[in-house]
């Protein structure tokens, strides 16, 4: 491939072709063994670089895989053989406007960096994927990322008021802006959020912010059965809106306890960590209501703290569950969600799938919104085990669809889950998706193989 | 036009062709004098009726204007000569699920009816257009309607989790569902919200609900100047998130006082009505902070009440401002919004436009989110006055665009504002909009003339 024209259109050093450097851009955290080798990586420094890259790629029909921090779990940034990986990691500016309570951020900034920048103004950007220290805000927008606070505060799309996005042919457009209300024309901003780089490349985001989150009360409860735990979850969400409501099963509890020695109940079948950020003493009041819901559901142990640091420690324990379980072996990380009343059916169904396929599956969940992360432990050196793990991976998605749920709550479809998408959406919605894709990317250069 | 095939495909009585009955479906509240006369009105009873109508219209290339309650203010439901008006007024079912905190509503239900149905379960559907007693939930979704609570609680799109929508060719599709998190495929649900019937006809909505709103504290403040009032607005929104923050100018104050005799300060240049729904005594605490912000900005009079009924009376007064000002003469109702720091420039600019064009313009506003409703009084019997009123109408939109704002915050573009849309969005975004429209409605039968 003749890259001279591309190199000439971009700042010095923006185009990487050294095979050693390309390796680091082949995979995201889905670690797809079938990842391709790109012809080049473009590390854009500004919107003009993104536009120049897409103009060139559009003219020459070269596939472009947009990439944020590469922390995606569905293979949305898996490189394509002979294509360009277009990285936004160097686009890292942010400005905060406390009066409109908005921030304008470039896509390469990490989620945690956005949170810190706005916190300096007493403000808060809520969405908080567990990977918030290492995932980019551009990737968050591309996947409509979620997190722990979503049960009360919603997901990324709820905080994106506007964006600059470069279309497939290299045309940059501005959509929306720092206005909470705007009914002028189609809701294009919202269409690009969650489009996983298949419709355009986001080069700037206008984010809605909230006042800094108040101190939270924390409730930790252990249960002897999954039934009791799911009953407590419904008891809590039926009464109030917790600011967090997380679930870990027995395997996750023990894996975390192995590493962190916090005194978690190793005999428990399930652990819930719930929080309230209601103002002042209302947080303690809400915590008390959650304590009672857990006790009513038959919790074996319930602990309640107003101490922010102690509460953070339990939240950190929950966030640490994925790496902790990973010590048992490489993970296939699921992301299925169901309407809340079906959560119990999902969790028990997953246990049956694990048993049937003779694989270890640990379930952790953003329980308050029905979004679970079954962690399928597998051994890549064992072909049979790996095959069974992948079978379980698919069966869990099938189960979620049967229960009226989704194959992905917050990670995106990427390449890993695209074979299941038609089962969830049906042929008519797939056709509708294809029509929009073809209208916006007629040559199919943008992230080919993702979603569709 | 041969309607036999259409009549045969629908239940008895669903197709109206009596000219006397058609008259009521020619206009919405924009009262467009150039409204067409439809060939027929279809009053659908179910999704199948909508699908049959669109299949027929698609085959015969007949324009279809979808219509909810007909309370739109931008002419989005203005009938087209020889077309079909497709009314959803008879589709009025709702089911509420307190566990997932969602409701599934048909489009013909009024916003107030949705609010009442969910309130029976202790739940709350926030979006509250001033017309909530007479606008339909389907129309709300089609225009991404707003209201008074949006300053804290967001707009319609923030509450639409899923929908059934019938595409231009008559294919019904289901998008999203009762899941707070769902990253499976493109964000199609959000694309259809605010599309004003140009991409499909919504036949069912899955709505996110909140726990019932707590009792509110209310602050009413009068100001001798617009500058002082806008300073108070920024003082309030810079400190906390009011559940409501409304503005009326002198003309509106006096028009309301003429009708309601509440003791409003007739000498004031501006009146703010602000509320807090923070839990328990925090509402009073937030109200106190708002009182101090108003005093600091130089309010001439500040009143504060914890009495819910009294607070509702002031909210009702603000809601009544439009009909009250209408007693001065027929209104051209504007809906421009700006980023909050430009609100003062917008309000003073509107006064200059009114003076220059020698017309009366009263400004009321959802001040907390920068969304204003300039009310242009005109006399249809006076051609010169009417021309000046329309000139002012356009100049106000031009001004909003210049200030980085929007020509419509919550009413939609419809037919009334479409000539200004390219000025706000620019040619590239218009072209993008056109590509999506053409992909989803290749024969252009859906609400032709609206938005585009």
TrEMBL record, chains A, B:
Which keywords annotate this record? FAD, Flavoprotein, Oxidoreductase
The record's listing under PROSITE patterns reads:
FAD_PCMH
Co-factor requirement: FAD
Q: Which GO terms describe its molecular function?
A: FAD binding; oxidoreductase activity
* Gene3D superfamilies in the cross-refs: 3.30.465.10, 3.30.70.2740, Vanillyl-alcohol Oxidase, Chain A, domain 4
Q: What region holds the FAD-binding PCMH-type domain?
A: 34-212
The reply on keyword Transmembrane helix is: no
Tell me which family the UniProt entry assigns to this protein. Belongs to the FAD-binding oxidoreductase/transferase type 4 family.
- According to UniProt, the name of this protein is Glycolate oxidase
Please report the organism this UniProt entry assigns to the protein.
Nocardia amikacinitolerans
